[in-house]
Amino acid sequence: MSELEEMMSANVVTITEETTIPEAIALLVKHNITGLPVVDKTMKLIGIISEKDILKIAYSFQTKKYDSSNPANTIQSVMSTDIVSFDINDRISDICKCLMESEFRRVPILKDGRVVGIVSRKDLLEILPVTTTSDTMCRRV
């Protein structure tokens, strides 16, 4: 097992485009997570929804601008499709750099295009920078 496989969260909670917004909110709260990969029936990544996306919907709901019968108010309509993901064989240092330099809090890990894990900033808290070379930028504590 690679270091990335050991570090990533492998029990990924995912949703589909058919998942309702209330169901997505319930999953975020139940699992104490901040985002959900959106997958098709074969677990291929098609989008991601974050707590920020959900908060936008929640705000609309609170201000009575949300209409659950409107087909535009679906996971598909609020998910991000411009996704940054990494392959199971990518280097942890590349993932570390991405999460340090971007607004992303988590990135999906794929194997053959299918979601097999998630690496979050929280996961990287167990990794210390030890040198500035790209191959050893981060290592497990």
List the helices and strands and how they pair.
Blueprint (H helix, E strand, L loop, with lengths): L2 H5 L13 H11 L3 E5 L5 E6 H12 L12 H4 L7 E2 L4 H10 L4 E6 L2 E7 H4 L2 E3 L8 E3 L1
Parallel strand pairs: 3-4
Antiparallel strand pairs: 1-2, 4-5, 6-7
* Coarse structural class: alpha+beta
| Helix percentage range | 25-40%
CATH fold-level assignment: CBS-domain
Number of helical regions: 6
When the domains are counted, the total is 1
Please provide the ordered H/E string of secondary-structure elements.
Answer: HHEEHHEHEEHEE
User: Largest beta sheet: what is the strand line-up?
Assistant: 3-4-5
The pLDDT mean sits at: 84
How would a textbook summarize the main sheet? 3 strands, mixed
Terminus-to-terminus distance:
17 Å
Find the count of extended strands (DSSP E, 2+ residues): 7
